[in-house]
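User: Sequence recovery, please. Input:
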């Protein structure tokens, strides 16, 4: 089971490549928390086209919203308020369900590791595109360029995406 945070959804939506997320995770349906759904709805109300594309997936049943339980709310209370509501809800639900969270926030990854929550980030998702033979490396390079152009996201380094893993000797 995979939960996607708003940042990852919006990145792939802005470059019109949301289907890549379903391919990488080999899932017909991906999951979001209530707060992530609400964040996307705010984008729709502000007229952001990328948000409309995400909500269309929700309408089609390809994005499923999960609701908090009391145990989730208790766990959320242990997380810092500096994390967004969507991040905290997603982390809490992923902890309960032993699910994977896709987020591009380093602080989310840190708190996931601290709390035993499985987490992946944008670089790992992009790397998986070529490792899983979903796209060839030149196409993944184009995806990276599209993200930098259309989302104004600048990668500090692309080595985590494209470098061959080092072999232990």
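Assistant: Recovered sequence (169 residues):
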């Amino acid at each position: 089971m995979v939960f996607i945070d708003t940042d990852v959804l919006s990145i792939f939506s802005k470059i019109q490549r949301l289907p890549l997320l379903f391919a990488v995770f080999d899932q017909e349906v991906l999951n979001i928390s209530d707060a992530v759904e609400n964040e996307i709805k705010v984008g729709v109300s502000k007229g952001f086209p990328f948000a409309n594309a995400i909500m269309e997936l929700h309408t089609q049943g390809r994005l499923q919203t999960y609701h908090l339980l009391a145990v989730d709310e208790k766990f959320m209370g242990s997380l810092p308020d500096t994390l967004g509501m969507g991040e905290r809800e997603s982390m809490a639900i992923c902890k309960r369900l032993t699910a994977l969270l896709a987020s591009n926030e380093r602080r989310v990854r840190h708190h996931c590791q601290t709390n035993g929550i499985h987490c992946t980030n944008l670089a790992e998702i992009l790397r998986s595109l070529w490792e899983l033979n979903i796209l060839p490396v030149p196409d993944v390079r184009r995806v990276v360029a599209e993200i930098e152009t259309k989302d104004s996201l600048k990668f500090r380094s692309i080595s985590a995406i494209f470098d061959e893993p080092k072999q232990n000797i």
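The radius of gyration is 16 Å.
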